């Protein structure tokens, strides 16, 4: 310890250890033995200082790099070397020397702590050897399997490429076919449309004529009804008896107002009444059913409110049905309603009105034979075209899937290709975990409940030199206050393809261990240079 | 809905309950992180607070009836009468040893007894003689002992003034705000809203005893700085409350608390310190009911210039702070601690409520916590991670998920199937564990703890006499009545090794949720009309936490036959909680402001006796940036209770998960902590011995230097270490105030010397933790940082001798076995060092 001026004097107060003589200073590896020559001053290994040799391992730190205390805990950054004969040698931090905890299997780190350490190096060496042997066997078998997988993947890939070519050729034919049928379809649809329009127009005209006739009939009826004194004229007084006609609806239907309606005259005859009629027909209530609102009349307030609310809130603007008069194509309308299942059914008042209108006009007459023939022909062309298009889409899908599979990174020799479109499960005490490589990971409670996505295929995520050792699945179901669930799949060499464990080390971040022969490396020859030979 | 929020906040049922709760969640959180203030009462919403606060300063209706005065050797009694309703009160006045005056006011003849707080004072405080100096029809003057201190009792209106020489130290009822709602029959008087029933949100408080609030004002002439009354997430120097709510003391489980406001939090210590350059005093308001504290000041609104102008013109009125305490029930029992130095106030308060429990040395090391370490394998691998990255730690913690379905004292049969094996693994590394034991007990007839409590009738009762049931982590739960000594004794017995299966001597305890937290209760706590025997929960609320803590600590002591010191962490606390262990500042968040507030929050606790304080390192809610996490480790390493903790839903944040550079920064911060353990231990011994806080505001050591009075971004550890942690994001430097014109301070890393009495700008990098050792001090350290504190037991000490301008230094070293009570039998070494004339000597 360096004395730092006269202001701060770090002093060693207590403690101290006995330095025990050994062939080389305690804690020094053979490789560094030459730097510790007894009876010669010791130079710190970083060259920073030279001290008397008796300061080596005197339990006081002199060298900034800790090299003067290889066998004690004195230096904060030092290392202690355990020979560990029978196992493999190791460096441990100086702070673990004599801390009462056995770290070196040869017990050399606890020479002065009273800890009761047993030499376990031979045992550990044996175990490690067995373990390594086992791993080597697995690796060997796994590697053989991997070779097969690579072969299979190669064949599979070729097959797929051939298939892809076939599909691509097929696709071209189908495309041509679709184009041909499109022309046919369009050619058939033109006369169909024209014939339909003609039919429709004829019916429109017919309907208008019928309506006009009805209106005139009603006008005459009303004229007769209004003309109380049957003089052939409608007078101001006669009109006033129908308070619903009050133009400003203020509760008093004045003479002036009535006169206004009669175009300034005291009474009008049937001819002039025709012009008056247009102004009053919306409001007019027949005397025979004065308590029932006439068709087309504004419904009572309550109903109106409901209707208007529904209009504005339950229907998006574009879905507000057109005025009933123009609403001829009833079939289409109904289809729309079905499609818009999200919205409430229209209020009943509307349906009633519509029905009345339909009843008035009657259904559209069937198409004439000629038109029907054109429609049938066009429909056939459409069906054929749709069929062809569907076939093309299917082929395109297959091409896309194949291209995706072919371009997938299945490892340097496509050894992981066999996992594609497979799934592997692991059942724990609570859940069933399911890994579908290159697709998704999910978790399902064992005793019922819905499946939770733990991520979909993201990427290979191993270290740079071994990127294919880890798979990452991302963007699973979101977590409260956390990220969306994700899963890291660690691959290890194994003869079988199995999910061996799952855990959730951090909330919503899952870890899966997965064995597969595809990750097995060519085994190094086992007996070459086992490290425990170094210092025997 | 608040309880639902709480449930979600700790994310308990999320995975299993799916979409239904997700909908609730959206409603609860509304996308913000702040506390839902609507779940907690304002003064306006708390009927008694509103009633009392409506009384404005003026002439008090209370009059002292001097003819009823009785003076014995130890106390004075006197009746007070309220001229408005003729109700009489009994005033008792005691002179206590050590310069403390106690004032008690109760009804002379209450309809039924009013609650007086038991178990908080360590004994009936010893008295000193009072003597009558003079008496006339206006009042009496009593001598308070040697220092020409007197108490003047004025009769009409009633007020008390404590004077020393010509100075008034403190006046009571000088603003006429003494309020004492006498117990009455319901039909007796006009009924105001909230007197006999009160509803907050969906909860109705039945209030069978009617109004019972007490309140009193205190004037502090010459005082501009008041401190204490934790727990609030606010500055060290308390603010005036004229424009908002008073500071509230009502132990509550506040979800995602907000900073810089007077809202109540998990604990309550009704102790306020007042300080100016001449004197420090304290007020200890011994009442466990819901309490509000108003603070106003005649100088608060003035600018520095305004004050200066007053001074120059000589027109200044004396600065004065006025304080008013309002409690919902009980009596007025107040201890006026008259200082005059900060140290004397600490010792006066310690003489009343005791000192900090002397913790096991290991508990001063680093604690690694997370909600939750998933299983034994997880614990093993985190433990191994610390060795792999060469970071020391002493305790690893298990939160609620370690139990079998939130049944405390049990272990999850799958995840923690062999707890003893796990604990043995830690013991082999000389490390320890803390497992949570909360006070809510799952109602389940297959659960032994529930059955025993239930059959012994130990549960708190609801207003109708049945067992009180609330909703908490386990679902429906009962709450043991910890106010009962027989219940506490039984609880303590449950920690015995033959009762608590799987426990070993290196397993310690954490009491959470002991406000108590009741998810579906009013303000997430217990109904005030629940019953603890004869008393309402209203009377004892703020004591529930300390009783849980007390019984648990007792259990840990008893399981070792009284040999081993306990370690118990609590979230709720009250005056006296220092006697039972450590506290932490609850569920904070991974935000820079939360790092900053950890300093004033712990300083405020330190001032009122609770030294063993810390904040969750890294922040509980949310995920800290790497920079924030590193800075938090650096700050936490120099705060008394040093524990990292994280919410269940946050990503993992063990120290080695942020790249080698940050691992090294965190390792270095933790290692600095371990090198200072001898100093920490000595400070805790001092706190145990004398009541002096471990972590101190600067003004405590430099009481005459007004520049220190409001500092709360730096602090002292003991007298000799000054810490100004970096708490700003992206900081390039900090400005630390180095106090003491005659002092010198040494940077502990570079040994560079700086003069005191200056603001020092210190450039910082990510590795900087600005810490200074006072010249004239000797600090013992241990530089061989090992796996855990226990591994360092036999290591040598290194003394850091920092010389002052006179080239001398003094210090001390305390050593004992680190974990037993044998220090009580004097089995320790306590040496004092001095250095002068280039010689270090020791006695």
TrEMBL record, chain B:
SUPFAM superfamilies: (Trans)glycosidases, Galactose mutarotase-like, Glycosyl hydrolase domain. Coiled coil: none annotated. Transmembrane segments: none annotated. Residues 91-294 form the Glycoside hydrolase family 31 N-terminal domain. Residues 1-34 form the signal peptide. CDD domains: GH31_GANC_GANAB_alpha, GH31_N. Pfam families: Gal_mutarotas_2, Glyco_hydro_31_2nd, Glyco_hydro_31_3rd. It comes from Fundulus heteroclitus (Killifish). Belongs to the glycosyl hydrolase 31 family. Keywords: Glycosidase, Hydrolase, Signal. Residues 691-779 form the Glycosyl hydrolase family 31 C-terminal domain. InterPro entries: Gal_mutarotase_sf_dom, GH, Glyco_hydro_31_C, Glyco_hydro_31_N_dom, Glyco_hydro_31_TIM, Glyco_hydro_b. This is Glucosidase II alpha subunit. Gene3D superfamilies: Glycosidases, glycosyl hydrolase (family 31), Golgi alpha-mannosidase II. Residues 357-683 form the Glycoside hydrolase family 31 TIM barrel domain. GO terms for cellular component: glucosidase II complex. GO terms for biological process: carbohydrate metabolic process; N-glycan processing. One of its GO terms (molecular function) is glucan 1,3-alpha-glucosidase activity.
């Amino acid at each position: 310890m360096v004395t730092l001026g006269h202001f701060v004097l770090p002093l060693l107060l207590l403690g101290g250890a006995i330095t025990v003589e050994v062939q080389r200073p305690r804690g020094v590896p053979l490789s560094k033995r030459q730097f510790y020559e007894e009876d010669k001053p010791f130079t710190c290994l970083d060259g920073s200082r030279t001290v008397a040799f008796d300061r080596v391992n005197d339990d006081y730190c002199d060298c900034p790099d800790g090299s003067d205390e290889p066998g004690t805990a004195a230096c904060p950054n030092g290392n202690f070397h355990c020979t560990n004969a029978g196992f493999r040698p190791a460096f441990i931090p100086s702070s673990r020397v004599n801390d009462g905890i056995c770290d070196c299997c040869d017990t050399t780190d606890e020479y002065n702590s009273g800890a009761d350490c047993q030499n376990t190096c031979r045992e550990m060496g044996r175990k490690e050897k067995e373990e390594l042997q086992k791993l080597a066997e697995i690796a060997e078998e796994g590697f053989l399997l991997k070779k097969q997988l690579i072969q299979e993947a190669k064949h599979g890939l070729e097959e797929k490429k051939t298939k892809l070519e076939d599909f691509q050729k097929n696709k071209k034919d189908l495309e041509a076919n679709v184009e041909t049928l499109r022309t046919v379809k369009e050619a058939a649809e033109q006369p169909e449309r024209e014939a339909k329009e003609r039919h429709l127009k004829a019916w429109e005209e017919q309907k208008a004529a019928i309506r006009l006739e009805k209106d005139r009939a009603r006008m005459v009826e009303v004229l007769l009804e209004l003309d109380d004194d049957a003089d052939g004229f409608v007078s101001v007084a006669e009109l006033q008896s129908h308070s619903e006609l009050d133009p400003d609806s203020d509760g008093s239907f004045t003479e002036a107002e009535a006169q206004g309606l009669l175009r300034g005259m005291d009474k009008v005859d049937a001819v002039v009444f025709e012009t008056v009629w247009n102004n009053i027909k919306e409001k007019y209530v027949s005397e025979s059913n004065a308590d029932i609102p006439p068709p087309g009349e504004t419904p009572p307030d309550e109903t109106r409110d409901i209707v208007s609310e529904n209009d504005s809130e339950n229907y998006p603007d574009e879905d507000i049905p057109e005025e009933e008069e123009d609403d001829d194509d009833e079939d289409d309308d109904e289809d729309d309603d079905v499609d818009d299942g999200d919205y409430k059914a229209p209020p009943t008042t509307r349906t009633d009105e519509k029905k009345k209108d339909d009843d008035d006009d009657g259904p559209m007459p069937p198409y004439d034979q000629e038109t029907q023939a054109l429609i049938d022909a066009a429909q056939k062309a459409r069906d054929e075209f749709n069929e062809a298009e569907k076939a093309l889409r299917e082929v395109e899908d297959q091409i896309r899937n194949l291209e995706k599979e072919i371009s997938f990174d299945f490892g340097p020799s496509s050894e992981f290709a066999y996992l594609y479109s497979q799934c592997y499960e692991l059942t724990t005490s609570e859940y069933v975990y399911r890994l579908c490589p290159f697709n998704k990971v999910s978790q399902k409670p064992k005793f019922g409940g819905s499946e939770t996505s733990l991520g979909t295929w993201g990427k290979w995520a191993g270290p740079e030199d071994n990127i294919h050792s880890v798979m990452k699945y991302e963007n699973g179901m979101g977590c409260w206050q956390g990220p969306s669930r994700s899963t890291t799949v660690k691959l290890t060499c194994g003869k079988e393809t199995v999910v061996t464990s799952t855990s959730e080390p951090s909330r919503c971040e899952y870890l899966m261990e997965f064995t597969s022969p595809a990750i097995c490396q060519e085994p190094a020859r086992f007996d070459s240079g086992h490290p425990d030979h170094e210092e025997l | 809905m608040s309880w639902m929020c709480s449930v979600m906040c700790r994310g308990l049922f999320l995975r299993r309950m799916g979409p239904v709760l997700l909908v609730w969640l959206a409603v609860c959180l509304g996308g913000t992180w702040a506390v839902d203030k609507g779940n907690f009462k304002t003064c306006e919403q708390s009927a008694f607070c509103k009633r009392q606060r409506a009384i404005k300063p003026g002439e008090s209706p209370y009059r002292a009836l001097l003819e009823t005065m009785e003076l014995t050797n130890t106390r004075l009694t006197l009746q007070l009468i309220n001229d408005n309703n003729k109700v009489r009160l009994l005033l008792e006045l005691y002179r206590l040893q050590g310069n403390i005056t106690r004032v008690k006011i109760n009804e002379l003849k209450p309809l039924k007894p009013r609650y007086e707080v038991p178990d908080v004072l360590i004994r009936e405080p010893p008295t000193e003689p009072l003597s009558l100096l003079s008496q006339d029809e206006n009042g009496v003057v009593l001598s308070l002992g040697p220092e020409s201190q007197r108490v003047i009792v004025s009769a009409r209106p009633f007020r008390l003034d404590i004077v020393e020489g010509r100075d008034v130290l403190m006046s009571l009822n000088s603003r006429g705000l003494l309020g004492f709602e006498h117990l009455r029959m319901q039909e007796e008087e006009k009924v105001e809203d909230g007197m006999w029933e009160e509803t907050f949100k969906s909860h109705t408080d039945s209030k069978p005893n009617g109004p019972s609030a007490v309140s009193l004002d205190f004037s502090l002439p010459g005082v501009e700085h008041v401190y204490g009354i934790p727990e609030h997430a606010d500055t060290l120097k308390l603010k005036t409350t004229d424009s908002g709510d008073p500071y509230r003391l009502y132990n509550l489980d506040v979800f995602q608390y907000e900073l810089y406001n007077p809202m109540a939090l998990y604990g309550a210590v009704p102790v306020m310190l007042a300080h100016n350059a001449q004197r420090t005093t304290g007020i200890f308001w011994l009442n466990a009911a819901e309490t509000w504290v108003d603070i106003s000041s005649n100088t608060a609104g003035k600018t520095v210039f305004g004050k200066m102008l007053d001074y120059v013109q000589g027109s200044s009125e004396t600065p004065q702070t006025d304080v008013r305490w309002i409690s919902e029930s009980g009596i007025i029992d107040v201890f006026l601690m008259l200082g005059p130095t900060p140290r004397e106030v600490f010792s006066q308060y310690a003489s009343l409520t005791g000192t900090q429990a002397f913790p096991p040395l290991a508990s001063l090391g680093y604690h690694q916590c997370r909600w939750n370490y998933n299983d034994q394998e997880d614990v093993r691998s985190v433990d191994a991670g610390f060795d792999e990255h060469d970071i020391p730690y002493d305790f690893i913690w298990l939160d609620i998920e370690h139990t079998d379905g939130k049944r405390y004292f049990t272990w999850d049969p799958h995840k923690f199937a062999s707890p003893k094996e796990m604990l043995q693994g830690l013991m082999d590394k000389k490390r320890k564990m803390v497992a949570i034991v909360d006070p809510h007990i799952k109602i389940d007839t297959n659960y032994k703890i529930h059955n025993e409590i239930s059959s012994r009738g130990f549960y708190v009762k609801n207003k109708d006499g049945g067992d009180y049931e609330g909703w908490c982590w386990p679902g429906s739960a009962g709450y043991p009545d910890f106010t009962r000594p027989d219940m506490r004794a039984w609880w303590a017995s449950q920690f015995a090794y033959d009762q608590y299966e799987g426990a070993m001597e290196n397993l310690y305890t954490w009491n959470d949720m002991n406000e108590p937290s009741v998810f579906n209760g009013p303000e997430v706590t217990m109904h005030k009309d629940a019953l603890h025997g004869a008393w309402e929960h209203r009377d004892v609320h703020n004591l529930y936490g300390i009783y849980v803590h007390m019984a648990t600590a007792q259990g840990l002591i008893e399981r070792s036959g009284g040999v081993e010191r306990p370690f118990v962490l609590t979230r709720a606390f009250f005056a006296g909680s220092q006697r039972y262990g450590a506290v932490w500042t609850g569920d904070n968040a991974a935000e820079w402001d939360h790092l900053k507030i950890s300093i004033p929050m712990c300083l405020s606790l330190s001032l009122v006796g609770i030294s063993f304080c810390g904040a969750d390192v890294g922040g509980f809610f949310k995920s800290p940036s790497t920079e924030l996490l590193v800075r938090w480790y650096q700050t936490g390493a120099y705060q008394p209770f040093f524990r990292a903790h994280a919410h269940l839903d946050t990503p993992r944040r063990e120290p080695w998960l942020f790249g080698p550079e940050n691992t090294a920064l965190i390792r270095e911060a933790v290692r600095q902590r371990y090198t200072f353990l001898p100093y920490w231990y000595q400070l805790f011994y001092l706190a145990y011995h004398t009541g002096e806080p471990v972590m101190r505001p600067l003004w405590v050591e430099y009481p005459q230097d007004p520049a220190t009075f409001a500092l709360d971004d730096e602090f002292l550890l003991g007298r000799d270490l000054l810490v100004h942690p970096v708490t700003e994001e992206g900081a390039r430097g900090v400005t630390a105030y180095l106090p003491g014109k005659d002092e010198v301070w040494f940077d502990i890393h570079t040994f560079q010397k700086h003069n005191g009495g200056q603001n020092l700008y210190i450039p910082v990098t990510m590795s900087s933790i600005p810490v200074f050792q006072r010249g004239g001090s000797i600090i013992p350290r241990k530089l061989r940082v090992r796996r855990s504190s226990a591994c360092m037991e036999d290591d040598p000490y290194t003394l850091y001798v920092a010389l002052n301008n006179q080239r001398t230094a003094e210090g001390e070293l305390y050593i004992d076995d680190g974990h037993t009570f044998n220090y009580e039998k004097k089995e320790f070494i306590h040496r004092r060092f001095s250095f002068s004339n280039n010689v270090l000597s020791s006695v």
